[in-house]
Amino acid sequence: MTERRMIGPTKFEEYSEKYKEFLLMTRRDGIIEVRLHTDGGPYKHNWEAHTAWSHAWSDIGRDPENEVMIISGTGDKWLIGDPEVWNTKFMDWPKQKKLEQYHESLRLLENLIFCIDIPTIGAVNGPGTHCELATLCDITICTEDADFFDPHYLGGTPPGDGMLLTLQSMIGFKKAAYYAYTGKNINGQTALELGIVSEVLPREQLLPRAWELAEMIMQAPRSTRHLSHSIISRPWKQALVADQGFQLAHQMYDMAIDEEGVLERLKKMQGRLMGKDVQ
Questions:
Q1: In which element (H, E) is residue 246 found?
Q2: Within the chain, which residues score under 70 in pLDDT?
Q3: From CA 190, how far away is CA 196, in angstroms rounded?
């Protein structure tokens, strides 16, 4: 009988190096901390990272040495939006690039939910868009100045890439619609009251608290951790299967016929995208 050659998972040393331009990873005693960043500072949105994230979730999820994951940002902001990523109007993108953007946007959230089989903690370290990466985690904590802000509708684009979907699931359809249409700031305290997060902390206490929670989770048997995460994350799997593709297709169709493009509209809210509340 010919011996079968098994293809094993990618090692931490390899994938942490592979994604270091976009994600800074550390691991201790089975707990992996993943921080969004750009040049060692707050993450500034770009398409390269947008693509890399979905691949990173797959590699992290397949590594049996990872037993709890913490996702956070770097510095005093979770994410800095950059209108210049839309310097070329989406309707002018090549057809193949539009298709790739659709699939990458789906996988960004799908791989986070379907490829990660361990407990997850999101630690939102400041203002910025795309907080769904943290709110999709089992536990989400944030700083007082966090800003759960969805800029899509105000920027002239249907809100279909995940932010609204997570709000609909967490706070209900009516409240989510209000925040989608108005773009009103949801700060840390409001997020706590709405049930988006479980704790609000000063920034210097955020990551230590995330690690404290991770270490507490690690006290349970491995099978208990894995299967509890499976139960806890199931509503997200159901929501993504039911609605993510539908919502994203609507957003991207509108972008594909938008002759004006979103660049100038987003520039009008530059302060918000930079993590400054200018309402």
A1: helix 245-256
A2: 1-3, 270-279
A3: 9
